[in-house]
Write a structure and sequence with these properties.
Order of helices and strands: HHHHHHHHH
Oligomer: single chain
CATH class of the largest domain: Mainly Alpha
Strand content: under 5%
CATH architecture of the largest domain: Orthogonal Bundle
Structural class: mainly alpha
Number of domains: 2
Number of strands: 0
CATH topology of the largest domain: Arc Repressor Mutant, subunit A
Shape: elongated
CATH superfamily of the largest domain: Homeodomain-like
Helix content: 55-70%
């Protein structure tokens, strides 16, 4: 391979990664909206089929798999950073119904959203196992309180 063709290959790869980055940035800004393959392919200035192949080749998963996983990750951050209901979080992260959210959440995490949230709260010391004193849940260390106050809640 000569230097000219190597340079062209590198330039092509950079161009494709720039297109994928535009799509990923768009998804981050619009996670709560209905996002279609046609729409994101257009953002990447590509046809649907070409975009699908390019995305999977460079990211390692299909766009729909990526979108589902990203939405669930955003929902998990919202569960940790807010007291919104699971249904509200489902809609804010782009799911069409709480049932669809629960189904996808379970596929991604092997847990229901409510069980996941309950376990997360238990691990963080906000829920007390049965038989323990309720005062234990309120008795958090100062460092935990400072850590929570300094962390930014997820934007939805």
């Amino acid at each position: 391979m000569d230097f000219g063709s190597l340079e062209a290959t590198v330039a092509e790869r950079i161009q494709y990664y720039a297109r994928i980055k535009r799509v990923v940035d768009y998804v981050k800004r619009n996670v709560g909206e209905k996002l279609t393959l046609e729409q994101v392919a257009s953002i990447a200035c590509m046809e649907k089929t070409a975009f699908s192949k390019c995305f999977k080749k460079r990211i390692g998963v299909s766009f729909s798999q990526y979108l589902r996983s990203y939405r669930v990750a955003t929902a998990i951050a919202a569960m940790r950073g807010s007291d919104c209901s699971i249904t509200e979080i489902a809609y804010r992260t782009g799911f069409s119904s709480s049932g669809a959210f629960a189904r996808v959440f379970k596929q991604v995490t092997d847990s229901s959203p409510s069980s996941y949230r309950r376990e997360m709260l238990r691990r963080d010391g906000f829920l007390v196992p049965p038989g323990k004193s309720a005062a234990l849940a309120k008795d958090r260390s100062v460092s935990d309180t400072i850590r929570e106050a300094s962390s930014d809640p997820p934007e939805l």
